[in-house]
Amino acid sequence: MDCSCLVQDVYAAAGIHLPRVAVDQFNVTGPISDPQPGDLVFFANTYESGISHVGIYIGNRLQINAPTTGEVVSVAPVFTGYWGAHYARAHRVRT
Asked: Which positions are catalytic?
């Protein structure tokens, strides 16, 4: 499971349809300045140029993160380390 599949599956379980790819999820959600648990956090220039990664914000500056297919889903910092260096912005799903 990769990052955008994780997001798509979690939101689908709540009855919300999101596209499959991170950049498409970025384009159908709205920017926010103060992420709350359940919001999406987007990262740029990770695996490819532009928006290329998405996580689910869980609070306390942390995200549920599926780094890439074949790696373990885990909790990771949003604003520090590798992900902090690539942080683009937070978005909220419009319902």
From this structure: 3, 53, 65
Distance CA 55, CA 94 (A): 17
The 8-class DSSP code of residue 9 comes to H
CA dihedral (16, 82, 44, 60) positive or negative: positive
The DSSP 8-state label assigned to residue 72 in this structure reads: P
Structural tokens at position 14: 């709540």
Q: Which CATH number fits domain 3-92: 1.10.40.30, 3.20.20.70, 3.20.20.10, 3.90.1720.10?
A: 3.90.1720.10
Give 33-68 pLDDT, tens digit per residue: 999 999 999 999 998 999 999 999 999 999 999 977
